[in-house]
Amino acid sequence: MRMKMFAAESLEAAKAMIFAEMGDDAIILSEREVPGGVEVRAATDKMGGGMVPSESRILTRLGAAPPPRLVESPVRNRVRDALLWHGAPQRFADRIADAGMTTAFENGEPSAAIAAGLESTISCDPIPPVPHRNIVLVGAPGHGRTATAAKLTRRASVAKAEVLPVAADLDLTAGGAQLAAYLEKEQDQIRTATNPDELFKLLSTIQNEGQRCIIDMPAIIPFDQEDMASLQDLLAVIDAEPVLVISAEGHPEDLSEAARAFARCGVRRAIVTKLDVTRRRGGIVSALISAKIAFSHLAITPFIGGGLVPATPTRLAQLLTEDAPAHVALKGAA
């Protein structure tokens, strides 16, 4: 049997090319939309060459050479379809699917191929129980910064270490009380600063004590220029690493724009939250990759204890395998 891939502007045009070249007894094996038209795979019993991608008419007219394409495979298609189901952009889904196929997972499981594709694309950089620098958690409203601050504090305690939780209540929204409630402490046990000067003095005291802290910042709207300018000014004068806390919920384009805005402020790592209540998780993965932000931890439960798991390509792949429940990636949470 001879098989060949045809590319054309429309399905009708592709069929016309197929029947003209392969005869009226040609069989259509598969078809899919691609940028600029469609790709159709056909077969015939007539003798001839193997599968060779034909050049798109659009590309031919423009004088541009078509990009090389990998041979179709069921595993690649399942990887691409799983990522598309999860809301990942088409280009991102194709990129990960192709990268997964180039690492000898042709006959493997889709989750293994996704992991291989992600491993060649993303960066994972978990925060140690006692970070090398103070951590300042930044993010938009409702993404779980305060709960994440409590989780990082509790995680250090479980590791027989200590980091100090600090509520930077600069917008006077009772951030200290909320952080104390998460940690089941009295409010006076939480160090709180209500203005930048208090925060600077507090951080100086913590540094003199030779300790590290987790700073819970007020909500910052990434599309508000004044908010982002204020954040940049603050980060320029405090010795702390900004870590983005970002929910997996939301439109992929909004997530991508927000991630890039925080990246411009110096964010290099992110903790992804609300994976337990989000079914489609492709948008957040593609957003952080596009912003060149490393995955630090995944928040897969709402509980303060055991609520964080270090990010790895394998764990992300499990979360991106069609409709896999979040608990499949929970092993190792702390």
Question: Care to describe what's here?
Answer:
The protein has 334 residues and is an alpha/beta fold. It folds into 3 domains: 67 residues, no CATH class; 52 residues, no CATH class; 196 residues, Rossmann fold. It is built from 12 helices and 11 strands. An 8-stranded mixed sheet has the order 6-5-7-4-8-9-10-11, sandwiched between helices. Helix 7 links the parallel strand 5 and strand 6. About 7% of the residues have low confidence.
Keyword list:
eight-stranded mixed β-sheet, 3 domains, 334 residues, single chain, 19% strand, 12 helices, three-stranded antiparallel β-sheet, Rossmann fold, alpha/beta
Task: Spell out the blueprint of helices and strands.
Blueprint: E1 2-8, H1 11-22, E2 27-34, E3 37-44, H2 57-62, H3 74-85, H4 90-101, H5 110-119, E4 134-138, H6 145-158, E5 164-168, H7 175-182, E6 191-193, H8 196-208, E7 213-216, H9 225-235, E8 240-247, H10 252-264, E9 269-273, H11 282-290, E10 294-299, E11 308-310, H12 313-319
Parallel strand pairs: 4-7, 4-8, 5-6, 5-7, 8-9, 9-10
Antiparallel strand pairs: 1-3, 2-3, 10-11
